């Protein structure tokens, strides 16, 4: 295992202060960040030392200024930059020599000579760092051109001793030939030249390395480990959680925190320490954020683990630490889980994840693994972080300044504290530092430190003519919370690459990700960006990005997910006020429907986004959307397998968002396809279509007449040799539809009897090698039964449901949190606990049911206009969670995201509806079951409402009953 130490580059900036504020500000804001960005990509650490402030007043009084400056010159070797204008600078007295540290005592005689001469501290820095012995490898000097106009305060008096000494110092610099000496007229001219010089110095000191194939895969992760493992406060107590996990022999462990809350730092720190402690065991670190632009991050992980150096022993404990798994989508997480399941018992895996992410929920559900949850910074830790961070730059804040930061509500997490301190360190003027700190810490309403820093960036980039580009870049990133490739972002908005390279370091301070995708570190920062820029501007920027992706087949293949995310954000926003802008949004809606119906693109769009697009753009149903121009291949050009996947996915989306007529249309297409090919499974798809439009009795009759379910039970089903393979698969799938049909009719006894038959059928799965879909359908049908028993059954029926659920627990875990069967099971568990009054247990099950609904059926937490984004299944689990939350806290949960109300509970719409379906064609039993389900949720919610609201609920017209024709 290669252990690569990070490489430090410190550059001391020597000049006078007040007359060089403009130059230093430009370097600190626009040049040094670009160099730092370059160094990070090469796993170097770049730290510019700008001492305009940072030496406390007490140290100045005690004569510590000279010592602090010369020690920083030493700490920055072998790099030095000198800049001179028309000021000679402050001249220290002999008292300064009394405070020299041990490392400078050897220079006592030389420094005394300089003090007696009346040399300024700037001249001492230049002589001490470079000119006295000329042995430093990397230095350069810049002299402000004589013709540049500067205020008289920034010039030495004509004929004065200081003017003569300044001229002599400049002549001395010009005469030496070892180091570059350049004149400049503007801060930008200085910055451009210094950028070139420093980049050459860095590449000379640390030449770019061409790693071999194996190292090329490994080095980025090891460098990331080194960078992340350094901490700014004591976190050793988290190390004990790893020891407990190792002793438990559990396969998986998670370090969890809020977004930007430090889980990566804890994982890296503990990996480093574990490698030292378990030196004979293999401990591997992999960081998904350190990947280059790759088609599949999990493919890259598998390639990484296939290296000979990463071969994991079967007979010895080993560990794989996986950082930033929260960046992965659900499909990638499922592949990662599959890889873990295939490892031997001696292989253990530790993750860093964000609380509430798909990775945290899916891994936690699959393995029920131990976790270490990071708490917020306490006041002592905040003080440590402030001291350690500023010390890197040779600076210190005063006790009063530190106290203001420590007491701020928003400095309790690492990311916010880091960007705050980075901004403070970059501020150049001592006289305005207090006011600047107060400005950053001031919080109004929902705005926080990030909002203030966003504003600072706007001001800074406007000053150099890049305000428009800065606005476009930050807006684009905020429109895609899941991330957008940076090259796509700046090209789609016509931001010149040179402009983006200047903006990028500032923007990346509050972003995460890699070449594949960059996103804001905290999702709530998207809200702050939205509040900062006007809504018409955001809408126009979003439409520009979508249009750019859709203009080229190579682009729209990768841009479908991003286009859907942007459309979720801007569909209700005005681009402007005239009719042409309204037409532009109409055109955009048409394009989004074309994406959503494209077989080649729809599979990459999350279910919730698809539901929103269909809700907004396809008001007359899919049957009347046939004239929409589809990107890529048309459905009739797909293979039978591809058609099955396409129409099945659309059907699930439509069902989740109460569009059963559209879902039925999809199954009708599959039925027609099966009929043409002579496939005996055709009636199953027809039955699904009938069931979706409320014709459950007809669906049952069709399946019975087809012969697929035309038998009394399954007593002798497996005795027939013909009932293997496809025959068995079709009969089980037919029974799964029968279960749903009996449930839709409220015929619980028949539903349970069918369940027994399905369980018998499942006993033969191993022997008959049934496909995954058949197994999924069977288990989903069983969980629908347990859900119905949990909702409507007696106490005895609930016990039966609980036993069945327990029996299926292992199978459900392998299916994953995002499977419909898992959602049914979790909701059923939550309902049973709620009925028993075990509210704490119910809260846990229902919280997982909500997470499952998000993944299985599509929903979103973070959108004010959530009506179009929440699935029917999500709303059911959420409403019950709100009831349990009230029982536990006495507070009403507000699902519209405006906090907690105290007087009434506002449930989400969880009624099943028959949109686009003639109620007269729907079985009466189906209608009654829909009403029964509505009444169940309504009655549970009613129990926590205040009396006045209960009376209102009782007096409300029964619109659902009316719409059903009952």
UniProtKB/TrEMBL annotation:
Any Pfam family: DUF4062
Record bears the keyword Repeat: yes
Keywords, comma-separated and alphabetical: Repeat
Residue ranges of every copy of the DUF4062 domain listed in the record: 10-95
InterPro entries according to UniProt: DCAF12, DUF4062, P-loop_NTPase, TPR-like_helical_dom_sf
UniProt-listed PANTHER family: DDB1- AND CUL4-ASSOCIATED FACTOR 12-RELATED, WD40 REPEAT-CONTAINING PROTEIN
Name of the protein described by the UniProt record: DUF4062 domain-containing protein
Source taxonomy: Bacteria, Pseudomonadati, Bacteroidota, Bacteroidia, Bacteroidales
